[in-house]
Design goal:
It is built from 18 helices and 20 strands. By secondary structure, it is of the alpha+beta class. The chain has two domains: about 210 residues, D-Maltodextrin-Binding Protein, domain 2 (3-Layer(aba) Sandwich), CATH 3.40.190; about 230 residues, Dipeptide-binding Protein, Domain 3 (Dipeptide-binding Protein, domain 3). The strands form six sheets. Strands 1, 8, 9, 10, 11 and 12 form a six-stranded mixed sheet that branches. Helix 1 packs across helix 10, helix 11 runs antiparallel to helix 13 and helix 16 packs antiparallel against helix 17.
Length: about 600
């Protein structure tokens, strides 16, 4: 820990940080790799898994969206993976490619990478009140509705732009934002076939994106009236195709969803286990929200019954408790994700690259990592593509990009002299910020560990002369009301990060840093980075198919983005999960959460 840092935080937080740095069972600093081996997640249920019972997941905040066409937050996938069936989805032990779900086999890709044919399963029915069998046409509608502003999808305008007719469909929506457009490049010759015609050889990216929730079938005759509203109400009336559904009434209105309070999953009476790879042992799952005190919530899980954590990783204090006293109830999973502090490049002072570089240079990333439990929580990040994702090694691996142009990212405990150099380049002769542009608004989590991280980063900004107004809010509101809404976005979002959309470096870089993907709401380009050369390169990479060439090109692009300093990358994340002693948890390696469709209760 850097002794020169002026700690502008409460004494209690200093104690938490000290605990975090020795969070492992023997009180020492275990490496990330040894921690992962010691607390390795279980990715398959036992042969004698018990059928039945109710599981409760405790969460600090809410999902971002219930609607699968908009759902994009990791916690949301805990719900969608149990309730809807996209063409492809991620089984617990999938690490390289997803499993066919509503699709009845692997996609057929043409030799020029411009045509994708997917055959869909028969016998999959929508939950009440729709009750009919789902078809390929329902997938077509599901993707078309993602272009509606009322659905607020965060990735169609990035991953599906190569599907023929995209521009025409967008123009149709501009004329009539209440009706899903006809997308000519998506063809459904019969009820069990869907064909994607591409204008570019971008099949690799499109197939990857078909594992996202938006490709799950949506019945148009039921959903159109909800999609015609300014903000689609389908999310609060949705029907399921998975083994579970959100509890509803006879009209389809979700009675089991109280925003910010509770999500009740019950069995879908129309689910046929013969069509699904999910065993779905549990009778019901109750996601209880509003546990802002995640330390108390974790203790409640560890000492209680039939419970797991939901939307939060363990705060440092809880991680030490679990590792030392309840090691059999703790799992540590490499998440394929990064954590970073977003610096809003569209607003002063962070529209100046030298100020952004100064902030990155001054950041003590080891102190930030300590707020999440030290080495047990992951490797310190030096760029954006995480380990095990194509492009990681090509971007410099653990050490990161090298050379004098990257001097601002080299020291994990921060380098005040380099920071002062860049502040002087920005016009501050003292090496500290001076004047009206030094007032900064920061919106972040109101609960640990995110709130701890925000407080530590606040102190690091103040060390550079900035005056920081920190606005703590619920985690879901941080995204849906502030950081993901450009009109309301603050200068700093300290608690953001990105988990892979699919197993590819483009799925790490494209949505968070592509300027063409900045939306009025539900945007995930939190730095609002809009650089023509970066946007152009991302479009070009989508057309590269050979794996080696893709990885090399993605690594080089990661370096270019890192050089622009749009954010402070500080952690390649591991996800820490806990379960009560009478729960047999199965962790999904893709989203790193408890997979409720494979989890059971102990006999």
């Amino acid at each position: 820990m850097r002794s020169k840092l002026a700690w502008v935080i409460a004494p209690g937080l200093i104690a938490v940080l000290a605990i975090g740095l020795s969070a492992c069972g023997d009180g020492g600093n275990e490496s990330v790799s040894s921690a992962q081996a010691k607390y390795a997640p279980v990715t398959a249920p036992p042969d004698n898994a018990q059928q039945g019972g109710k599981l409760t997941a405790l969460a600090a905040g809410d999902v971002d969206y219930i609607d699968p066409g908009a759902a994009f937050y990791q916690f949301s996938y805990m719900v969608t993976s149990a309730t809807v069936r996209p063409l492809f989805s991620w089984a617990p032990d999938d690490t390289e490619k997803p499993t066919p779900d509503f699709a009845d086999g692997e996609p057929e890709i043409s030799s020029d990478y411009k045509t994708i044919t997917v055959h869909t399963r028969s016998g999959i029915k929508f939950s009440p009140p729709v009750n009919r069998e789902a078809t390929s046409a329902d997938v077509k509608y599901a993707l078309e509705r993602t272009l509606l502003p009322g659905v607020a999808n965060g990735y169609s305008n990035v991953y599906f732009t190569s599907v023929d007719g995209y521009d025409e469909a967008v123009k149709a929506v501009e004329k009539d934002p209440t009706t899903a457009p006809e997308w000519k490049g998506i063809e459904t010759p019969d009820d069990n076939t869907i064909i994607f015609h591409l204008t570019k050889p971008a099949a690799t990216v499109v197939v990857g994106a078909l594992s996202l929730p938006a490709s799950a079938p949506v019945p148009p005759e039921y959903a159109k009236k909800y999609d015609a509203e300014t903000t689609s109400a389908y999310g609060t009336h949705q029907v399921a195709t998975g083994p579970y559904m959100i509890e509803n009434d006879s009209s389809g209105e979700l009675t089991g969803y109280s925003p910010g309070k509770e999500i009740k999953l019950v069995r879908n009476p129309n689910w046929d286990p013969n069509t699904d790879y999910r065993p779905a042992y549990l009778d019901s799952v109750d996601l209880q929200e509003g546990f802002a005190d995640t330390v108390s919530a974790t203790r409640k899980i560890l000492t209680g019954s039939h419970q797991v954590n939901g939307d939060y990783g363990l705060p440092a204090q809880s991680l030490k408790l679990a590792a030392t006293k309840y090691p059999d109830q703790l799992s540590v999973t490499p998440s394929g994700a990064n954590r970073y502090v977003a610096l809003n490049t569209s607003k002063p002072p962070f529209d100046d690259i030298n100020i952004r570089k100064a902030v990155v240079a001054n950041t003590d990333r080891e102190a930030l990592r300590a707020t999440r439990g030290g080495p047990l929580s992951g490797e310190i990040a030096t760029h954006f593509i995480p380990p095990l994702i194509p492009g990681f090694e090509e971007a410099g691996g653990i050490a990161g990009p090298q050379g004098p142009e990257f001097d601002f990212i080299q020291n994990p405990t921060g380098d005040p002299q380099v920071a002062a150099k860049y502040m002087k380049k920005a016009g501050f002769s003292s090496g500290k910020c001076e004047g009206s542009n030094c007032d900064i608004t920061m919106v972040g989590d109101n609960a640990p560990p995110g709130s701890d991280t925000a407080q530590v980063f606040k102190g690091q900004l103040e060390e550079l002369g900035f005056t920081v107004s920190f606005q703590p809010v619920d985690h879901d509101l941080m995204y849906t009301k502030f950081c993901s809404v450009p009109a309301n976005a603050p200068q700093v979002c300290p608690n953001v990060g990105w988990s892979k959309d699919f197993q590819d470096g483009q799925a790490i870089l494209d949505v968070p840093f592509n300027g063409t993907g900045i939306n009025p709401k539900n945007t995930s380009n939190w730095p609002e980075l809009d650089v023509a050369s970066i946007n152009k390169e991302l479009a070009r990479i989508a057309n590269i198919s050979p794996p080696d060439e893709r990885a090399k090109t993605l690594g080089a692009l990661d370096d270019k983005i890192t050089a622009l300093a749009p954010a402070v990358p500080w952690l390649w994340d591991t996800q820490t999960n806990v379960a009560s002693a009478d729960v047999v948890p199965v962790i999904n390696l893709f989203n790193s959460n408890t997979d409720v469709s494979f989890t059971s209760l102990a006999k």
